[in-house]
Amino acid sequence: MHSLLDDTLLGIPTTSRSNSLLSLNSNDSNLSDSSDVGVLKVDTRSVKQCTDYKTIRVTNSTTARHVVEKFLTTLKLTCRDVNLFDLWMELTTRASGSPVVTLLKLDPDSRPYELQRCHPAGMSRFILLQNPTGFLVRVHDHNISPQSNYKSLLLSSKTTAIEAIQIVLSLNRKYDDTSKYGLFLATPEADAQIPDDVSLVSIARLCQPDQKIIIRNVDVF
What we know:
alpha+beta; Ubiquitin-like (UB roll); five-stranded mixed beta sheet; 10 strands
């Protein structure tokens, strides 16, 4: 049967098959021994070529956002913008004896294991895909890492300044409290701090040639 995502996934080499159950006991304290605990298998080939699929333990309360975050950590992609990744569900049904495939993009708050349980075994699967609409934002980080000049971040239009700060800190292998840092729109005349809850892409799109976005320490009282 031809999958709706075959055109997306074809041509991606698979050098190893990673299908072992991830050991999440030490990280997911919310998983219990109750009957609502199960497994979720997610196709990750389009996100990282050296993988085929990964399987994690989940509960009915596990959201699609949590699944995406867990896979980015497992695939060592923690420096990527989580808002650029979506969890998709591919459903297979039958109409007049022929298979019908439907593809759904899950909302971040949806519960994939709950959705999986609503369909017969083997009639659904999940795919992790990166949204191609990212915008490249340059953040000058020499104030916090003298050996560096700037970091280029591929960001979603939903990503806030505080989320971008976390990505920059991860790229610099700094694990400080994000509240100790701020992003500023620097001009030849003065610097203006960018509010934490503002989309950084919206600021970057309006930047003039003599303006740049910088990160630096801020006073915390």
